[in-house]
Amino acid sequence: MKTAAQGFTLIELLVAVALALIVLFAASNLLISSSGSATNLQARNDLLQEGQIAMNYVAANVREAAYVYPNGAALNLGGGYTTARPGGGSWVVGNASAPILAFIRSPRVVTGAPCLNATTGAIDNENACYKFMAYYPVLRSGWVSNATGQNNPGVDAANANRWLLVEYTRNLPSNAPPALSSLGSLDVSGGSGKLLLDYVQPAVTNLPQLFTIQADNPQTPGNVRVTLNLSLSRLASGKEVNIPARTSADPTTWIQALSAAPRNIGTLPP
């Protein structure tokens, strides 16, 4: 039996140190795991909230459309990183590898100041203008290397291959509605693109297109519908966070869909 003066043997001290190290190692692993779980949970909540806001915003603008560009329509949005199509080339509605949704939105106000100032020819009231609008993906790495200010979501090397969803707008400089016959040759370049949503899942085999467009030709009221098929994906703390959650390896189940029917179809002159 030890007395108070005897203390501990070297072996006992080594055992105590070893046990303490084991406890510290377990505690640190638990802390790291908890921190990673908290990061993943925050990333998931952010993706969920931002995705819902973006979907509702796009749907609200689609509902104000007077014309939706159909599958096969080619669009020239001009140059620059804000309109850089993944893979290069021109934008074509219905292209699976680089989808785009484009439409003419009706004026938000029909009273008050007109779109154009009759004297200067400058746009005085944007809300009174017909507006060309487009939504499309841009490769995240290319956007981040060029964007500045609030338009730059920040470098994220682990997610460089993800897409960003961009909103492109251009006011049509006229107080009169555009004629349907002119829309195919309408110059829509010179507008501006801004970041709408981060961490969009790039196209993969069997993943539904980002936009599904159903439209008669000619377009008639009640027979045009746009569906946004959104899938978000982000690597956070080494783990993939997906919205919606993926319970299957089948990409057809990876989307959250929201449809909208334009209510101003049929209001443009022929």
From TrEMBL:
Localization, UniProt: Cell outer membrane; Periplasm
Q: Which UniProt keywords apply?
A: Cell outer membrane, Membrane, Periplasm
Recorded hits in InterPro entries, A to Z, give: N_methyl_site, Pilin-like
Q: Could you tell me the membrane topology recorded for this protein? A: Single-pass membrane protein
Q: Name one Pfam family in it.
A: N_methyl
Q: So which domain of life are we looking at?
A: Bacteria
Give an example GO cellular component term for this record: cell outer membrane
The protein's name is Prepilin-type cleavage/methylation domain-containing protein
